[in-house]
Amino acid sequence: MRSNDLARLAGISVRTLRHYHQVGVLEEPVRSGNGYRDYDTHALVRVLRIRRLAELGFSLAQIATLVEGSGPAAEDLFDSLDAEFAEQIERLTRQRELLAHLRRHGVPPDLPPEIAASHELLRRSGLTESAAELDRDYALLLAQVLGAAGQEYLTAVYDLMSRPARAPATAAAMAAWADLDDESTEADIDRLVGQLTELLVPVLAELTRDGGPPPPSLAEAQLQEHTTDYVTLAQQRLLERLLVALEKEQPDP
After folding, report:
1. How does DSSP classify residue 186?
2. Residues 6+ apart with CB under 8 A from 189
3. Residue 31 in 3-state DSSP?
4. Residue 81 C-beta-side C-alpha neighbours within 13 Å
5. Helix crossing, 41-56 with 60-68: angle to 10°?
6. Of 2, 7, 8, which Cα lies nearest the Cα of 31?
7. What are residue 58's phi and psi, to 5 degrees?
8. Cα distance between residue 140 and residue 106, in whole Å
9. Roughly how many angstroms between the first and final C-alpha of the chain, as a whole number?
10. What is the three-class DSSP state of 228?
11. CB 44, CB 1: distance < 8 Å
12. What are 83-92's pLDDT values in tens digits?
């Protein structure tokens, strides 16, 4: 039978059949006098076995050992495949839980899930749409720049800043931050620095007192490197002054 016939009977594509030849799980027959490759029933049975094992999840390398009867015992391959499936199930379960979390809080899926609930609480506390959009983008940027340890700290800060007693003031300050532009005065910036310092100092103190995650070791220069092209000049000046103000508020060692 020709390759098209074999592929049709086996329920695979001709391209897949050629791939079997390339990786060595199926011997390629010699061409007949008319230039075509002719396959016999033995080849069809082998392809059916290969397809069955592939559907079970075995790799072509594993299939090669199974159909040849060489290599690790089938029981060992079963154990390996079962462990791989267990990992996939665990990963997919986490993904489903994440989707449910994002759906429950009604937040965009690109927002770091750890701060999704806090972000939604701030929205409900008066955070404007423009401020919410900027916060979402900035949180995504910071989460990447800070790394895993820094993300834990960022999540803790968001959690405390979005508590009912602080959420309205936090939302107002974040909205003011989003509105900073080229027309903002130095007084506007200094006033907002004061608001944010007043909000953040007790939050940072609470984190330290309660044994929360340590602050990330991100230097001011690194922060500027990753944010200068993203925020406005007024927002950049605010960040610089806020870092100085918070440093002054830190207790002496």
Report:
1. H
2. 180, 234, 237, 238, 241
3. strand
4. 18
5. 130
6. 2
7. -70, 145
8. 17
9. 84
10. coil
11. yes
12. 888 988 998 8
**Whose structure tokens read 């989460």?**
143
- Tell me: the pLDDT tens digits for 158-193? 999 999 999 999 999 999 999 998 899 999 999 999
Looking at residue 153, the DSSP 8-state letter turns out to be H
* CB hemisphere CA count around 191 (13 angstroms): 10
* pTM > 0.70: no
CB of 194 within 8 A of CB of 178? no
Token reading at 60: 């072509």
Span 5-19, pLDDT tens digits: 888 988 889 998 888
Question: How long is the chain?
Answer: 253
Please tell me what DSSP assigns to residue 25: S
Given a contact cutoff of 8 angstroms between Cβ atoms, the answer to whether 159 and 122 are in contact is: no
Distance CA(150)–CA(166), nearest Å, equals: 22
Q: Phi first, then psi: what are they for 159, rounded to 5°?
A: -60, -45
